Amino acid sequence: MTQVEICEVSPRDGLQNEAVLLSTADKVELVERAIRAGARRIEVASFVNPKRVPQMADAEEVMAALPRSTAVRYAGLVMNARGLERALAAGVDEINIVVVATDTFCGRNQGMTTQQAVEQATALVAGARSAGVMSTVTVGAAFGCPFEGEVPIERLRDVIAGVVDAGPDELALADTIGVAVPREITQRLGLARNLAGPDTPLRLHLHDTRHTAVANAVAAVEAGVAVLDASIGGTGGCPFAPNATGNVATEDLVYLLDRTGVATGLHLRELLDTTAWLEHKLGKALPGALMRAGHFPPT
Questions:
Q1: What amino acid positions are annotated as catalytic residues?
Q2: Could you read off the pLDDT of 221-264 as tens digits, one per residue?
Q3: What is the pLDDT of residue 137?
Q4: pLDDT of the residue at 238
Q5: Helix segments in the chain, DSSP class H
Q6: Peptide bond into 287 cis (omega under 30)
Q7: What does the alpha-carbon distance between residue 263 and residue 90 come to, in Å, rounded to a whole number?
Q8: Which residues does 215 contact at the CB level (< 8 Å), separation at least 6?
Q9: Cα dihedral angle (79, 53, 15, 178), rounded to 10 degrees?
Q10: pLDDT above 80: residue 299
Q11: Quick one: 98 exposed, middle or buried, by C-beta within 10 A (0-12, 13-18, 19+)?
């Protein structure tokens, strides 16, 4: 592949596990900075219970303050019918629905079994389609679960089959706790492609918990993935997964893809400037490697 779309998730997944709660104005500035860096698809908020995820309590306020352009698409994460209602009222361009591949993690994350989550996703996809809004279903913990351990390929096959029957516009697999290695990326994306067919775009959500995310991204591109999620600075984590750490850093991923000859449309200097800004706002160093090592050749 010569081009891959990066979905910037720092405003949502990047911030949802942070102890520091950014102001609405700072969240909007983060989105604006991502746009200046070339991001054209941004997951900006979760429309979930603010008591469970207080970092996302101002989802509507963020959406109302964002600059609107036909060139930029804003996505919101939804977990249930109420979340969909809120997201549509806020004017999202697309929704992301999560179905966790194991019952234990799905219970912690959503208060239901995986099968119940599949059934709910079916209704949410139908609701989004009726509203003319694109839908993605993300299969969380597709490569491993913090509570049940390995996720057998047969289990993943059953979950993906149920998700495909829901009819989303896009199918994503998530390495929610950062345990995957390239061989598994190739194998499980191949399974997803076989079940979804050639016309459903595939997307991959990577966490760099064990520093395998960049290698996994290479395997995903070679497997024909159309969209990769990434988070500026490598921020991120799941509030309901023990020891879950950040997403693959957008700047690290763009550096890799640029030097591999794969276009992303993103600009490293702007990304690094935003990482420095975000470190200041969060009051800590972020895990992305390029921020520490610098661009090569130096600019």
A1: 238
A2: 999 999 999 999 999 977 777 766 789 999 999 999 999 999 99
A3: 98
A4: 77
A5: 24-36, 59-65, 81-90, 103-110, 114-130, 153-166, 182-196, 213-222, 250-260, 268-282, 289-293
A6: no
A7: 32
A8: 181, 182
A9: -60
A10: no
A11: buried
What is the bridge-based pairing of β-strands 202-206 and 170-175? parallel
For the chain, the C-alpha Rg in angstroms (whole number) is 17
Cα atoms found within 13 Å of the Cα of residue 12, Cβ hemisphere only: 24
For residue 128, pLDDT beyond 90? yes
Rounded CA-CA distance 134/235 in Å is 26
DSSP label at 284?
S
Cβ-in-10-Å burial (0-12, 13-18, 19+) of 176 comes to buried
The token pair that represents 8 in the structure block: 């910037």
On whether the CB atoms of residues 248 and 207 are closer than 8 A, the answer is: yes
Walk me through the domains of the chain, giving residue ranges and CATH numbers: 5-293 (3.20.20.70)
Task: Kindly indicate the confidence band of residue 298, based on its pLDDT and cuts at 50, 70 and 90.
Answer: confident
